[in-house]
Write a structure and sequence with these properties.
Helices cover 72% and strands 0% of the residues. It is mostly helical and 400 residues long.
Amino acid sequence: MKRHLSIDFGIFLTSILWPFGGLIASIVNFRSKYSKYSFVIASAFFAYTIGLEGDLERSCGEFYKAANFTWTQIFSDFITLKQIELYTPLVTKFVSSIGLSYKVGFIFYMIIYSTLYVNIIGLLLRKFPSKLTVYHFLLFFGVATYFSFRSFISIRFSTALLLFVYSFLQTVLYNKPRYLLLCLLTPLIHLGFLVSLPVLPLYLLFKDKLVIVFICFILSFFVSQNSFVSFLESKSVNYEESVINDKVKSYASEEGRASLESRYENEAKNATIKLAFLNNLDKLMLSILLYTLIFLFVIRNKLVDFEYYNPYFVLCLFLGALSNIMMNISNGVRFLYLTDWLILGLLLLLYIKNSEIKIYKIYILVLIPALLILNITKAVSAHRLLSPEFFYSNFFFAVL
């Protein structure tokens, strides 16, 4: 007992004095009680020293712009639907009002982000036996690192995604449906998650209707772009002076899609070979994991404990259908990350008792190296986010 306490305290102390060392220690001792606290501290320091890239540059600019807003203006815009996303304006206003820089704002964002992340990993880990085989560990590591620091570039969407995943895992794994209420907060972080809210009542109504939900999932592949865009435009007419209508015009209208597609094409042309490889590999993995739902449905009767995870599978089917539909608009592919991370979690949990079932074992043994290669490539491509200071310094020296 004393030995475990000394290890826990050592990990925590290391994260204070040397955050990067604390990060390594928390990963190596991932079952330690204090590892998640060390991970959050190291993540916060990473956010403080992070290199500005992509959405982070825009977030930095928005920080100083939003800092000029009054509290009254923020809530007035929310009430009149001119701005539904309260998360970033509230954090920005709070940090700027006490005279702190955007770096401190990033720390706030990362504390929420990393706390949700480690708790999601913890929810999955609690289902695992105390001893893991090599393949169980590699799959667990692959699932855990699929969604990582690189995703912090998209602060709002990634944080909303983590909150959505956390609330649903509490529901489907631990029978705590009250956590679904947290999903209602996701549009306040990123407006795009408004489209995910219908999944909540659908899940509660059809969580025991696997075949019906699977048919809906298959039908979602055939939803045309024109029909979906027309539906969005017809609904947004009721909110002409709101941010909802603005977003529909930006992402779903013909002009908006053309503008965004032009931007993505320019980014693809300017991408390095390494980044182009990552993007293609990422797209391939996203598609494979989505079609994995069909594979699991076909072999479900061969899998031990599949009935226990049936509600989890139904959730993945609903989100898979949502992802298919959302791919009809610009940047809608992002919802595949939500779906696919939950699918990976399901594959991980099913592997605990199905590691000897031949067809499932072969699939997992092929998936593990592919997943690890993708995650390593993601980590390498994120090098611009990592400053030298992150590896050797700590908060005390960085602030001085």
